[in-house]
Each structure stands twice: as structure tokens, then as C-alpha cells.
# Entry
Amino acid sequence: MEGVNWSLGDKSDRIKLQGFACCPGCRTETVRHPQDPRQCVTEWAHEVQTYFRQRAIAQTNSRKRSHDQRLLLLHDAGELVGAAVHASTLHSSPPERPARFERRLEFYAISFSRQGQALSNGEYASQALLRAVVSDITTRHDPRDEVILTAYIDPENLASQHCLARNGWRQGKSSAPDLLLYTASLKTLQEVHHVPPAATPADTEETP
# Structure
């Protein structure tokens, strides 16, 4: 398929994901082969790569109903250039208030060959992937819902920290001692990525 586009990942994408390479440490002389037993020098990136290669499809299938987990794949001219997983948690709120949700950006990554590079449409791959996430999350919620996005980032992952900060996320107080927390409201990210909010039921009703 020509151009930049994204799709939901499923079993048919298993082979494509098994070859997804996003870990810079695996491209150095320190770790030469996927089966190399030595520890990768970029362990945090290696964990993300291993997740997408081995567990993303199975976990998304198992958490599809309980957490509305979604696996998104970003393509450019048919090449897999990025992948992301997000899932939802319902938070309690008073009956008179809109439902409050947390959408966790569980994993996201850009292929090593496209990191810091523009796609065929001139947009950076990381921005295109985050826009796909926001677009997909928008379709999963009533526009009256209060939706907060969260992401936990390894302190050594400076690229992701800078990327999220550039795209409307802010660092918050983390409950995980070894990870940084970034948060943003869905409304804020819709504005940043120019994603229109979903129509409310009243908007879709025909006027007499």
C-alpha cells in the first residue's frame, strides 16, 4: 500500500512483527544476533523490541475485552515503520460526572532505520505514530468522557521523553520508582495532532 497509513495488528502480522527492529543496541557490535545471549547495552529498548516481536499480538488478544487493548502498526509504502499498544482502565467517578478513563500507552517504538527520520509525507515517524494513537483512542470513547493518557518511560530513554514533551505530554509524579510518568489529556492531544473529537449522539441525530 502506498503512502503513510496505520492499521490494527492481528495474527496475520506475526511474521512482520518478528522482524521489527527498534533496538539500537542490537545494531551494534555488542549484540550481533537475536539469539546472542549477552545482555543488550540498551536494555530498555531491547525489552520493547522483544515485546513487539514475541508478545504484542498474544497479549492484545487476551486483553481485548478486559482492557480494550489495541495494537497499532504504522506503515510507509507497505514497510512497517512503527508500532504502539494502548489499553484502558476505568476510574470511579460520581454518577453526575462524565466517565473518567485512563488510557495507558503501554509500548510504542519506531523502527531503527526510521528513528529521527521523516516519512514519505514529510512527517516524522514518531509524530505520525502518536497521531495514530490519538486517532484510535478518540474512536474508543464518548467525547463527553474524561480521558487521560499515561506513559511510563525509562529514564535512559531520552528520545521518547523528548518526543512526548514535543507532542503535548507533561512529566508527572510517578508511582514507579524506576520509571518516569508522562501524562496528557485526550483533548489536549487532539488539538496538538489536529484530530477532531468524535461526534456525540446528539450531533449525529438528524434535525427535523
In short: The chain has eight helices and seven strands. The two ends are 42 Å apart (CA to CA). The longest helix spans residues 125-139.
